[in-house]
Amino acid sequence: MAATNKTSALMARGCEFLGSEYAILCGAMSWVSERNLVSAISNAGGFGVIACGAMNPDLLDKEIAATRALTDKPFGVNLITMHPQLFDLIEVCAAHKVSHVVLAGGIPPKGSVEAIKASGAKVICFAPTLALGKKLLRSGADALVIEGMEAGGHIGPVSTSVLAQEILPALAGDHLVFVAGGIGRGEAMAGYLEMGAAGVQLGTRFACATESIAHPDFKKAFFRASARDAVASVQVDPRLPVIPVRALKNKGTEEFTAKQIEVARLLDAGEVDMGEAQLKIEHFWAGALRRAVIDGDVENGSIMAGQSVGMVSKEEPVTDIIAALMAESETALSNRAAA
Ligand SMILES: Cc1cc2nc3c(=O)[nH]c(=O)nc-3n(C[C@H](O)[C@H](O)[C@H](O)COP(=O)(O)O)c2cc1C
Description:
Layout lengths: L4 H14 L5 E3 L8 H9 L3 E5 L5 H14 L5 E5 L5 H10 L4 E5 L7 H7 L3 E5 L3 H9 L4 E5 L5 E2 L5 H12 L4 E5 L5 H9 L4 E4 L1 H4 L8 H9 L5 E3 L12 E4 L2 H18 L5 H10 L4 H6 L24 H21 L1
Parallel strand pairs: 1-2, 1-9, 2-3, 3-4, 4-5, 5-6, 6-8, 8-9
Antiparallel strand pairs: 7-11, 10-11
The structure holds flavin mononucleotide.
């Protein structure tokens, strides 16, 4: 690999915290971030994170054990805060002495941060705003991820560049903040590191790595797509809330719009009550990510992808992706130093 001294210096705090060679996390991706991709990322010097998603404690137990069998490097586990068995999942992580637990999907419930820390693990939380970031740090979070709306999967309303400007100058001096969302190349990574980020988190760029078990048709959809194909889900009726998710446009996203119109009509006609109507919307995407990632149903499944998907054009081993990011970052930083 090319000399990466400047980048490595900027990543030093993040690397120390993660116990990895590079402060590059592969964000947890449900169905994609399992033993193969997670171990490949950590073996390549990055930091892999298992996506627990809707797994039950038994499945998580097996996934952690299987990942451990493939790598002796550190990796994390991402737990969704509203999982009904969150505390049992925390116990599974503790039993395996998982070093880092990422809490995603909302404000951590009372006692969860404490339970993770009691096991000796470090806690990483998502900070959607500066105020919440400060609150999470006060509540014991060891590090924060700020994720902009360019990202794939569930998203907030604010772009990475604005979140970075609001949050890094305020918190990155004294705390560890990782930046996610829309990072496809090392030059962007270098920019956030210069602004004080401890490291970065990428998902879309790694989803189609050679080691990813995603279905070949899922990967092909990524290779064909450009940034503008990765769209946020559209809410048609203010009465029917839609969870914002960024995914590639397909037949499923079109049918989702039609479904909302149909359900709104049923509501107007008094044929369903509000509760039923909202459930019909909520259930539309049930199991849809699995259908796309595992079954390769790229017509009806949910092909979650960030706007950086336009920079993903072929299957590459994780080591090559990380080497490219580090080299691009180093060139950018060296050019600035020389200017
Ligand atoms: C296919 C896919 C599935 C994802 N699933 C999850 C998830 O289960 N939990 C989570 O916290 N983030 C999830 N994410 C977000 C990633 O962890 C990561 O933060 C994001 O992809 C970073 O932005 P980028 O896509 O622009 O690189 C997912 C992203 C993708 C593309």
